[in-house]
Amino acid sequence: MSAKPAKAKRVGMEVSIAVSHAVQLARAEAIAAYPITPQTHIVEHLSSLVANGELEAEFVNVESEHSAISTCIGMSAAGARTYTATSSQGLALMHEILYITSAMRFPIVMTVANRALSGPLSIWNDHSDIMGARDIGWIQIFVENGQEAFDHSVMAFKIAENAKVLLPTIINLDGFILSHVVEALEMVDQATVDKFLPAYVPRHNLDPKHPVTMGAFAMPEIYTEVKMNHQVTLTQSYDHILKVWNEWGKLTGRQYQPVERYQTKDAKILLLTMGCLSEVAEIAVEEMRDQGLPVGLLKLRLWRPFPFQDLREAVKGAELLIVCDRALSLGGPGGPVLSEVRSALYPMAERPATVGYIIGLGGRDVNPSAFKDIVNKAQAEVSEGLKEEFHLYGVRG
Amino acid sequence: MEKFGYAQSPKFDTYASRLMPREEYFTMGHRSCQGCGEALAVRWVTKAIGEDAIIAHATGCMEIVSSGLPQTAWMHPWIHVAFENTAAVASGVESGLKILERKGKLSGPRPKVVAMGGDGGTSDIGLQALSGAMERGHDFTYVCWDNEAYMNTGIQRSSSTPFGAMTTTSPPGKQSFGQSTWKKDMVAIAVAHGIPYVATASPSYVFDLYFKIRKAIETPGPAYVHVLSVCPTGWRSPTDLSVRLGRLAAETAVFPLYEVVNGEYHLTMQPHKIRPIRDYLKPQGRFRHLRDPEIDYIQMRVIERYRELLAKCGLPEPEFPFLPEEEAPVEEGA
Amino acid sequence: MTTPGTALRKPLDQTTWQEIELGGVLREPGSAREYRVGDWRSQHPVWTKSRCIRCGVCWTVCPEPAIIEEPGGYFDMDPYYCKGCGTCARECVTGCITMVPEEE
Question: In CATH, what number does A9-252 get?
Fold first, then answer.
């Protein structure tokens, strides 16, 4: 690791609070939020920062998440740097507006404290909420610990507001497992963030001196072209995301990648995880390596735009790829991540066999032994032939 | 209060069309139906709100006829997001402008924020967002274009559809006489939120509408104006009668013109004689199927509600030359 | 006669995805003026000047608006936009406007 700048200050802090501080350092100007477990500590702390004059912003307590994202659109359209946070049902309630937010190119930053979707009600962590929002056209990034939550919350504004990007961005962090734990992390000071993240300059806003019409409807003759424009913008945002990550890497010594690797050298078997599961999987991988098993871990950080090239590069040489989803696509061909990974690897002349496991639904605890068990089972399955499309790990009965 | 639109002298006020501003903020070329009362209302409201304003508009007739890529009929900065969240979007614009002003990023005074939506987008699907915006006290004006149904999607009923009206989802039939509930009282809901200015208005009374909008814009905090928008297509009335029907609505006390300023009621158009409800219902095809019991019931309810309004205004009763002798037996919700 | 907007941009079905403005934003307020809604009408208003008192009520009640004031203060319809609804004729104070069917 390269030398860290002297300005870094290491603190122990609840991750939700760290995220609020990141938003404060980023000088967010307008926040509209509705409380939902487990996002609450983020918005509570932000509201207290505003109340104490420590963050100069308008904090609007809206009456639902649908109104939260709608109000955020209004704020961003007026020209303010805008932020919100939600989870699970709240994200689901915002759904129709999420597509509109990205289509209208408002660079809103949103933290999603991932929580299981209802039916039955669960306040605990899994990825079903964000997996239901794959097609919304936002940039989507996963973090696995408090440091990453802080870092990416600051960087999200720079990514979103880039003149060539101008797309809303979601930072996913696991609810409770990450949002409510105290972790050691390094804050960056205001001067550094100010230099890294200049003031927001809107490229399109509502101003009587330059009136524009936003949100016109599109006839069939033009709808496809508008969508293509959005698709290309989202795909090409990849370069800008990496630029921001590289800049942060130079600033702090913490370099992030779209697909991160852990002990993948000469690995024949690869696990793939997202979010906090990655840290648990790392422990399992270490233990398996100690026993001589050629296992490695891939941590998928950039979810949208999907990092095709990085993934294809990362699996080269592996014989077996075990994808661990934390969401179930009912009636579908596998967990969301499994489906997308398989589809991304399909055109490769040589690719590893893929096996899918769904774990940790509704906040069920996953420990390293589960990953070891999964690796054994997956190996057996490959030699005996695939019996099921995917597996719901640990289900009783 | 500006002096255009009317001239004041010590003896009387002069209201003249020629004194009204000429500049069009809702331009010709919009694709509304012939004789659209709502388009007429938008035309005058956008003149009244002035140049220094931002409009947030709901999905609906006026949004669709005016904003098909790549053309727009709006001269104001204008944003459409979805159907039910106009008040939330307007809250966001207002808050965004507030913080920009505080941080010294605005080059001039803070523009006015106006939210506009139809009756469906206001009293049905948009009610939550409107209630939230009013409760939070944002400095904005909400204008409701009430054409009494979901007209843009093909004349389906809304909670603003009047009792007995035919719509495609409240059609009369062997077991129905049309809409079976009374029109939702949006003004009462707005007043219940304790906002400083609430009013009803109609483009049939252009000056009344114009000055009410100006008052609403200038009042700090939330303001709500409910505008009757005659729809010849949905009401099945001749295209040239939209202005007249709006007048009949006021003259028969179906849609009285009043304002509520900090909770105090003032009637702004006071007919001396109230016309019978049949004068209003007759030119509209959507009421054609009604029989006497329903019409008498409507007449009775209209008078009842008008009397309640007059009591709130502290005004004496006008003449009702046609009062029915006994109450009609039709029950609401039947 | 009102001259509609002179910016003749590409027809919608020839616009490429690269030409889409950021977020689909429309930067020309009032560009709807280019659209000839006057083609819809089946009747149009005719003023009898001798009875017109130049009050301006017709101009006030036109929903388009498609009524223009001539020098001298009289009014006439704007054929580019008049949809022929007849509101002006109905509301005219002196009754000097007649609706006349469009010629075949």
Answer: 3.40.50.970
